[in-house]
Amino acid sequence: MRGALAALTTRGRSFLAAGSAALLCAFVLGEHDLLRIAVLILALPLLAMMVVARTRYRLSCARRLDPARVEIGAESQVTLRLENVTRLPTGLLLIEDQIPFALGNRPRFVLDRVEARGAREIVYRVRSDLRGRYQLGPLSVRIADPFGLVELVRAFTITDSLTVMPRVVALPPARLSGEWTGGGESRTRAVSSAGDDDVAPREYRQGDDLRRVHWRSTARHGELMVRREEQQRQSRGALFLDTRRQVHGGEGAGSSFETAVSAAASIGVHLAKDGLGLRYVTDEGSVHLPEQSLAWSLLDHLALIRQSGGRSLDRGVSALKEGGGDGLIVAVLGSLSDDELTAFARLRHGGITGVAVLLDLPTWLDLHPSAVGPAAQAVDRAAETLRGAGWRIVRLAAGQSLSDAWPAVAQHGRIVA
Length: 417
Description:
Number of strands: 18
Mean pLDDT: 85
Strand order of the largest sheet: 15-14-13-16-17-18
Helix content: 25-40%
Shape: elongated
CATH class of the largest domain: Alpha Beta
Largest sheet: 6 strands, mixed
Radius of gyration: 34 Å
CATH architecture of the largest domain: 3-Layer(aba) Sandwich
CATH topology of the largest domain: Rossmann fold
Number of domains: 4
Distance between the termini: 74 Å
């Protein structure tokens, strides 16, 4: 009884109150006509409750996101499919999907009725200017009768996740010279290109290309021998991101930290498409990312990354030193102390190519005019120190696109701001 009364709307409770009053008056006054009216008024909400209750647990729901991963500011289309699995049509349906505030206002829709075994599809769009992983759902459906006397709420359990990734900027091609693992730009070395004495053949297998038959080994072993598959030596590198809160400035989507995350995402995707085996390191140490679908794994991680409370780069520098096979180090850096600059400068040695993306932090800070000059000079000194150790410098200011600054990685002997 308590659940039934909870399903009544204000109008439904008013009908029950009026019917009860009319019924009492009919008995007191002995009015048969009033008794009939009272029974009718009482019966309406009760009948509506019975009709609505029959469809309470006989609806199915499915949700589809297209796409399930979007960049900041891009839209994803959400399709809701609501199906009536009973033989009776539904009444009025009030639909509301639960979504986080960052994705916009909660979508609400009204369906007049859904026929027996029928289905309806509802489409709406969501977008966010903030990175993250957002849960959509559960969907709640309010089932109401045509008179508005009864309203039942059903909440589905199904939810879906939308991942909002950092903005990825397409970078122009720029040759990063240096002795990468695998021999510079030539990232594969075929065994078949070696001399006959260096070939490591194997037995012929059904389906092998006869053009790969190694005749000298065949004569030596008395059976068909073929050259092995081409063995690839992959170039390897490291991508470093400084996430310490104390070295960044600005607020919200335009802060230096969000710019650094976008820069790391753009560089990581660019290098992964270029065939580089990439390690990802932060000031807190190495982060394991699956080598398969490296670009997507990196973007998923960067979608959730937050500023750290660390005050030292020791763990990050140690993790970079452990990568003895790295031929390239790309570091996205905020402001650095003299000791941190020295430690980073020493990471580039031998045939390692070092690229430092320096955030021009004063452009993100609301500094007093007297402090602008010293702050800019500190960035200049950092760039000079790293350049003196052989690093290539890309300076990135607030509001500047990384694609415009990226060609500086191919320039030697001077700093490009």
